[in-house]
Design a protein that fits this description.
Bound molecules: guanosine-5'-triphosphate, magnesium ion
Largest sheet: 5 strands, mixed
Radius of gyration: 20 Å
Distance between the termini: 60 Å
Shape: flat
Number of domains: 1
Oligomer: single chain
Strand order of the largest sheet: 1-2-5-4-3
Mean pLDDT: 92
CATH architecture: 2-Layer Sandwich
Length: about 230
């Protein structure tokens, strides 16, 4: 049973709590009191990224961002992650150990766009990079490519800021296509790919990366006025 009522997503179904342990229930109740801060942080980060896209359009006549997706991690998924990682089942542990309660995906047109947006974001004084994993430079063995960055953003309701982490996954349209389908296939095959399928999926990711590089080359050629060499 889902913890949220479908009709009223913010209304919490207490009946659903019965399947959780005492510590998990306590954590869910405590988390729901502060969930709003994760939503506020996500909204602010969305605005920052959208404004940067707008700035790039006005300054360079180019929108680096194709689209943005965002979500707040459900209490079910928070409990699952804390259990999987073996962290203490407390609200302090959630605040210290879980950085992706507020999560965004920024899908860019070209690889260079990803690094341009990251460079602009890293210069902003109101957000700080807490953690960065570049799976484009070092792809995962599965073939997964993206840059994951956790930014700390300050939100104010009084004199003291509340600092909330927001995780952003940056990827190209091609990387997003691969990750979405691979995720779906992984789910359908109960997390168990055959060695052959693993090899193919890794190969398709490398093929798509080459397409990304080649499309970018054409884009650079068109926008810098270079002559065609063919
Ligand atoms: P989590 O506990 O899963 O959040 O792990 P993590 O944050 O330590 O690891 P990581 O940096 O790998 O980020 C995990 C997230 O990246 C997942 O929730 C997926 O969105 C994405 N991801 C990582 N590896 C893969 C992969 O092999 N395939 C797909 N489709 N997505 C992946
Ligand atoms: Mg994560």
């Amino acid at each position: 049973m889902s913890l949220y009522s479908k009709k009223e997503p913010q209304v919490y179904k207490l009946d659903a709590l019965k399947s959780y342990s005492e510590d998990e229930r306590k954590l869910i109740v405590e988390y729901l009191k502060i969930e709003k801060y994760y939503r506020y942080a996500l909204r602010e980060m969305n605005a920052i990224v959208e404004n940067l896209d707008d700035f790039c359009e006005n300054t360079f006549s180019h929108n680096p961002i194709h689209h943005i997706e965002s979500r707040i991690k459900t209490p079910e998924n928070i409990i699952e992650k804390i259990n999987r990682r073996g962290y203490p089942m407390t609200i302090d542990s959630l605040k210290t150990n879980i950085y992706d309660v507020s999560g965004m995906r920024v899908i860019c047109n070209y690889i260079n766009d990803i690094y341009q947006i990251i460079a602009l974001l890293s210069k902003q004084k109101d957000i700080k990079v807490r953690l960065k994993k570049d799976y484009i430079i070092s792809p995962k063995p599965s073939g997964y490519r993206s840059v994951h960055i956790v930014f700390d953003i300050s939100i104010y309701f009084g004199s003291e800021p509340i600092i909330i982490p927001v995780e952003i996954q940056f990827r190209t349209i091609a990387m997003d296509m691969w990750a979405s389908l691979e995720h779906e296939l992984r789910y359908k095959s109960n997390n168990e790919f055959t060695e052959y399928d693993k090899k193919c999926l890794k190969q398709y990711s490398d093929d798509l990366y080459e397409v990304d590089l080649n499309m970018q080359k054409i884009y650079i050629k068109k926008t810098t006025g270079d002559r065609d060499d063919d």
